[in-house]
Amino acid sequence: LLELLSYLSPQHHVTSLVCASMVEGGAGVGKNHWIVWEGAPQTQNGEIDQTTAPEEKIVYSQMFSWGYVSHQVTRSYTLGQLVKDIYGGAVFSKIP
């Protein structure tokens, strides 16, 4: 996840294939939803990094899903749950 998020910039779209249940209001199991990251997820201790504990709750994120950009990670989701529900990603160069 950290490697994927390292591409966040005005020049790139960073996408992830996820389980929709990690997105507020989503349902289902397995690989069933795409999101576009607009900002890195954060816990109460700041942006996630190599030292962030898996049990820390995600308190902020910016992603495009269901037609809008906002913090949409399901309430009380931990970093461990988030990582478990992300199945991969792709980075695209934005068209100028």
From TrEMBL:
It comes from the Bacteria. This is Uncharacterized protein. It comes from Aquipseudomonas alcaligenes. The lineage of its organism: Bacteria, Pseudomonadati, Pseudomonadota, Gammaproteobacteria, Pseudomonadales.
